[in-house]
Amino acid sequence: MFKRLSSHSDSMLLALVMWLCSLPLALFIVGPLFGLKVAGLAALMLFLAALAICWGVCSWKVFQSRDR
After folding, report:
1. Rounded to an integer, what distance in angstroms lies between the CA atom of residue 15 and that of residue 66?
2. CA–CA distance from 6 to each of 3, 38, 64, 68 (Å)?
3. Mean pLDDT score of the chain, rounded to an integer?
4. For the segment 3-21, what is each residue's pLDDT rounded down to a tens digit?
5. CA-to-CA distance for 61 and 68, rounded, in angstroms?
6. Angle between the 9-25 and 36-67 helix axes, to the nearest 10 degrees?
7. What distance in Å separates the CA atoms of residue 48 and residue 56, rounded to the nearest whole number?
8. pLDDT of the residue at 51
9. Which of 31, 25, 22, 24 is nearest to 50 (CA)?
10. Do the beta carbons of residue 61 and residue 8 sit within 8 Å?
11. Which pLDDT score, from 0 to 100, does residue 3 have?
């Protein structure tokens, strides 16, 4: 099981880097317009969206490699 998960860690790392790069965007655009609480909520939603996309890509890769 861990062998399969370790081969797709690059997708999780890419999702984390994308989220980290989007944090200043959320802070500087959403923060002044709606406040820091909403900017924090937007950052959390971006993180959850990145995790959901990563989970979908990783599970697709696992299912594709299982068929071969």
Report:
1. 23
2. 5, 35, 16, 18
3. 81
4. 555 556 777 788 888 889 9
5. 11
6. 160
7. 12
8. 86
9. 22
10. yes
11. 55
pLDDT digits (tens, 9 = 90+) for 35-45: 999 999 999 99
pTM for this one? 0.70
List Cα–Cα distances, 2 to 8, 9, 31, in angstroms.
Answer: 10, 11, 39
Q: What is the mean pLDDT of residues 50-68?
A: 75
| Domain-wise residue ranges, the chain | 2-67
Chain-centroid distance of CA 62 in Å reads 18
**In the numeric block, which tokens belong to residue 51?**
């995790």
Both tokens of 50, joined, read 């990145």
Give dist(CA 29, CA 53) in Å, integer: 23
Q: Which amino acid is at 39?
A: A
